[in-house]
Design brief:
The protein has 180 residues and is mainly alpha-helical. The protein folds into 2 domains: 92 residues, RNA polymerase sigma factor, region 2, helix turn helix motif (Rna Polymerase Sigma Factor, Chain: A), CATH 1.10.1740; 86 residues, Orthogonal Bundle (Arc Repressor Mutant, subunit A), CATH 1.10.10. The protein contains 8 helices and no strands. Helix 2 packs across helix 4.
Length: 180
Protein backbone atom coordinates (compact mmCIF):
# COMPACT_ATOMS: atom_id res chain seq x y z
CA UNK A 1 0.00 0.00 0.00
CA UNK A 2 2.93 2.36 0.70
CA UNK A 3 3.91 2.48 -2.98
CA UNK A 4 0.34 3.48 -3.89
CA UNK A 5 0.43 6.23 -1.28
CA UNK A 6 3.72 7.53 -2.62
CA UNK A 7 2.43 7.52 -6.19
CA UNK A 8 -0.88 9.12 -5.20
CA UNK A 9 1.06 11.88 -3.44
CA UNK A 10 2.54 12.81 -6.82
CA UNK A 11 -0.92 13.08 -8.41
CA UNK A 12 -1.14 9.59 -9.95
CA UNK A 13 -4.92 9.04 -10.33
CA UNK A 14 -4.57 5.34 -11.11
CA UNK A 15 -2.57 4.79 -7.92
CA UNK A 16 -5.15 6.72 -5.92
CA UNK A 17 -7.99 4.68 -7.45
CA UNK A 18 -6.18 1.47 -6.52
CA UNK A 19 -5.56 2.84 -3.01
CA UNK A 20 -9.22 3.83 -2.65
CA UNK A 21 -10.18 0.31 -3.74
CA UNK A 22 -8.01 -1.15 -1.00
CA UNK A 23 -9.24 1.09 1.82
CA UNK A 24 -12.83 1.74 0.77
CA UNK A 25 -14.48 -1.27 2.41
CA UNK A 26 -12.69 -0.68 5.70
CA UNK A 27 -13.69 2.98 5.66
CA UNK A 28 -17.31 2.08 4.90
CA UNK A 29 -17.41 -0.42 7.77
CA UNK A 30 -16.18 2.23 10.20
CA UNK A 31 -18.54 4.92 8.91
CA UNK A 32 -21.49 2.49 8.96
CA UNK A 33 -20.86 1.65 12.59
CA UNK A 34 -20.39 5.28 13.62
CA UNK A 35 -23.35 6.68 11.71
CA UNK A 36 -25.71 3.67 11.89
CA UNK A 37 -27.00 4.55 8.42
CA UNK A 38 -25.85 3.00 5.14
CA UNK A 39 -26.57 6.00 2.95
CA UNK A 40 -24.84 8.47 5.26
CA UNK A 41 -21.90 6.08 5.62
CA UNK A 42 -21.51 6.00 1.84
CA UNK A 43 -21.63 9.80 1.79
CA UNK A 44 -19.01 10.00 4.54
CA UNK A 45 -16.65 7.66 2.69
CA UNK A 46 -17.04 9.57 -0.56
CA UNK A 47 -16.39 12.90 1.14
CA UNK A 48 -13.39 11.52 3.04
CA UNK A 49 -11.91 10.00 -0.13
CA UNK A 50 -12.34 13.32 -1.89
CA UNK A 51 -10.52 15.10 0.96
CA UNK A 52 -7.78 12.48 0.85
CA UNK A 53 -7.34 13.03 -2.90
CA UNK A 54 -7.25 16.80 -2.49
CA UNK A 55 -4.81 16.78 0.40
CA UNK A 56 -2.60 13.73 -0.11
CA UNK A 57 0.15 15.82 -1.76
CA UNK A 58 0.39 17.75 1.53
CA UNK A 59 0.73 14.59 3.66
CA UNK A 60 4.03 15.03 5.49
CA UNK A 61 4.46 11.50 6.84
CA UNK A 62 3.14 8.71 4.60
CA UNK A 63 3.63 6.29 7.52
CA UNK A 64 0.77 8.10 9.29
CA UNK A 65 -1.60 7.67 6.33
CA UNK A 66 -3.97 5.33 8.20
CA UNK A 67 -4.34 7.64 11.20
CA UNK A 68 -4.84 10.58 8.83
CA UNK A 69 -7.53 8.83 6.76
CA UNK A 70 -9.34 7.70 9.92
CA UNK A 71 -9.35 11.28 11.17
CA UNK A 72 -10.75 12.61 7.90
CA UNK A 73 -13.41 9.89 7.85
CA UNK A 74 -14.46 10.31 11.46
CA UNK A 75 -14.61 14.10 11.10
CA UNK A 76 -16.93 13.63 8.13
CA UNK A 77 -19.04 11.21 10.19
CA UNK A 78 -19.28 13.84 12.92
CA UNK A 79 -20.37 16.45 10.38
CA UNK A 80 -23.09 14.19 8.98
CA UNK A 81 -24.24 13.21 12.47
CA UNK A 82 -24.62 16.88 13.41
CA UNK A 83 -26.60 17.48 10.22
CA UNK A 84 -28.83 14.51 11.05
CA UNK A 85 -29.35 15.80 14.56
CA UNK A 86 -30.48 19.15 13.19
CA UNK A 87 -32.89 17.35 10.85
CA UNK A 88 -34.65 15.49 13.62
CA UNK A 89 -34.35 18.43 16.02
CA UNK A 90 -33.36 16.15 18.90
CA UNK A 91 -31.19 13.13 19.57
CA UNK A 92 -34.02 10.82 20.57
CA UNK A 93 -34.10 7.18 19.61
CA UNK A 94 -37.32 6.16 17.94
CA UNK A 95 -39.40 3.68 19.90
CA UNK A 96 -38.65 0.15 18.85
CA UNK A 97 -41.34 -2.42 18.37
CA UNK A 98 -41.28 -5.29 20.82
CA UNK A 99 -40.17 -8.60 19.43
CA UNK A 100 -42.24 -11.75 19.48
CA UNK A 101 -41.19 -14.52 21.87
CA UNK A 102 -40.22 -16.82 18.99
CA UNK A 103 -37.21 -14.68 17.97
CA UNK A 104 -33.80 -16.08 18.77
CA UNK A 105 -31.95 -14.82 21.82
CA UNK A 106 -29.11 -13.60 19.61
CA UNK A 107 -31.46 -11.25 17.77
CA UNK A 108 -32.80 -9.84 21.04
CA UNK A 109 -29.26 -9.33 22.33
CA UNK A 110 -28.15 -7.66 19.10
CA UNK A 111 -31.16 -5.36 19.16
CA UNK A 112 -30.52 -4.41 22.80
CA UNK A 113 -26.92 -3.56 22.00
CA UNK A 114 -28.05 -1.57 18.96
CA UNK A 115 -30.45 0.43 21.15
CA UNK A 116 -27.55 1.18 23.50
CA UNK A 117 -25.19 2.07 20.69
CA UNK A 118 -27.50 4.61 19.08
CA UNK A 119 -27.77 6.45 22.39
CA UNK A 120 -24.04 7.20 22.32
CA UNK A 121 -22.77 10.40 20.76
CA UNK A 122 -20.90 10.05 17.45
CA UNK A 123 -17.66 10.93 19.31
CA UNK A 124 -18.16 8.02 21.71
CA UNK A 125 -19.27 5.65 18.94
CA UNK A 126 -16.13 6.52 16.95
CA UNK A 127 -13.87 5.50 19.84
CA UNK A 128 -15.82 2.27 20.39
CA UNK A 129 -15.78 1.41 16.67
CA UNK A 130 -12.08 2.11 16.15
CA UNK A 131 -11.08 0.31 19.35
CA UNK A 132 -13.42 -2.68 19.49
CA UNK A 133 -14.40 -3.23 15.87
CA UNK A 134 -11.21 -2.11 14.13
CA UNK A 135 -8.93 -3.34 16.91
CA UNK A 136 -6.81 -0.20 17.24
CA UNK A 137 -5.07 0.43 20.56
CA UNK A 138 -6.35 3.55 22.28
CA UNK A 139 -3.12 5.41 21.53
CA UNK A 140 -3.79 4.94 17.81
CA UNK A 141 -7.47 5.80 18.26
CA UNK A 142 -6.42 9.06 19.90
CA UNK A 143 -4.00 9.82 17.06
CA UNK A 144 -6.63 9.01 14.44
CA UNK A 145 -9.21 11.25 16.09
CA UNK A 146 -6.77 14.03 16.96
CA UNK A 147 -7.56 13.86 20.68
CA UNK A 148 -5.38 13.27 23.74
CA UNK A 149 -4.94 9.65 24.79
CA UNK A 150 -6.65 10.42 28.11
CA UNK A 151 -9.69 11.69 26.24
CA UNK A 152 -9.83 8.47 24.21
CA UNK A 153 -9.73 6.43 27.44
CA UNK A 154 -12.39 8.67 28.96
CA UNK A 155 -14.70 8.41 25.96
CA UNK A 156 -14.33 4.63 25.85
CA UNK A 157 -15.05 4.39 29.57
CA UNK A 158 -18.08 6.69 29.32
CA UNK A 159 -19.43 4.78 26.30
CA UNK A 160 -19.08 1.43 28.04
CA UNK A 161 -20.68 2.73 31.22
CA UNK A 162 -23.57 4.25 29.24
CA UNK A 163 -24.14 0.98 27.41
CA UNK A 164 -24.05 -1.00 30.69
CA UNK A 165 -26.58 1.39 32.25
CA UNK A 166 -28.93 1.14 29.29
CA UNK A 167 -28.62 -2.66 29.20
CA UNK A 168 -29.23 -2.90 32.93
CA UNK A 169 -32.48 -0.94 32.53
CA UNK A 170 -33.66 -2.99 29.53
CA UNK A 171 -36.53 -5.33 30.29
CA UNK A 172 -35.52 -8.98 30.27
CA UNK A 173 -36.17 -10.32 26.74
CA UNK A 174 -38.79 -13.03 26.50
CA UNK A 175 -37.19 -15.89 24.62
CA UNK A 176 -37.96 -19.50 23.99
CA UNK A 177 -35.43 -20.32 26.75
CA UNK A 178 -37.48 -18.39 29.27
CA UNK A 179 -40.78 -20.09 28.42
CA UNK A 180 -40.53 -23.35 30.34
Amino acid sequence: MRHLIDRAMTGDRDAFNALAGQIGDDMFAIARRVLRDRSRAEDAVQAALLEIWRNIPKLRDPERFDAWRYRLLVNECYRLARARQREVNAAQAAPRPSYAPDHALAIADRDAIERCFVRLSPQHRAVVVLHHFRGLPLTEVAAALGIPVGTAYSRLHYAQERMRTVLANEPEPVTSRGLA
